[in-house]
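Risk register update: the risk of archive-format incompatibility is retired. Evidence:
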Amino acid sequence: MAKLNQEKIAPMQPSIELPDKKYFTIGEVAKICQLKSHVLRYWEQVFPQLEPSKRRGRRYYQRADLELVLEIKSLLHDQGFTIPGAKSKLAQKVIPPQETVKNSTQVAAIELLQTMQQELQAFRNYIQNRF
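Archived output:
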């Protein structure tokens, strides 16, 4: 079991032990976070950052989603934020630099797409001028 960094996530909550697994069902997240599943489904609609993957109609939360749920719970229940206030607070979070760095495959794909876009635009202009 991995221990969460409680200062980052929920300073008011006691430390929570998370199972060492990649995916969690909505029932598992509800139990771990001591919330009802309908609250989690509502938060998915309200907080755009909370987006668990869905397969065959079932939600699967990853560890980052679980940590986000705990942070939202802390903001709303412990720190007294309103939903708009919590949304604003979460929107202010800075993206860590390692997430903004693109690998060479991503850079090559972006360059290829930009080249294709330029070629399509040139072809479109040619067609419009020709006919």
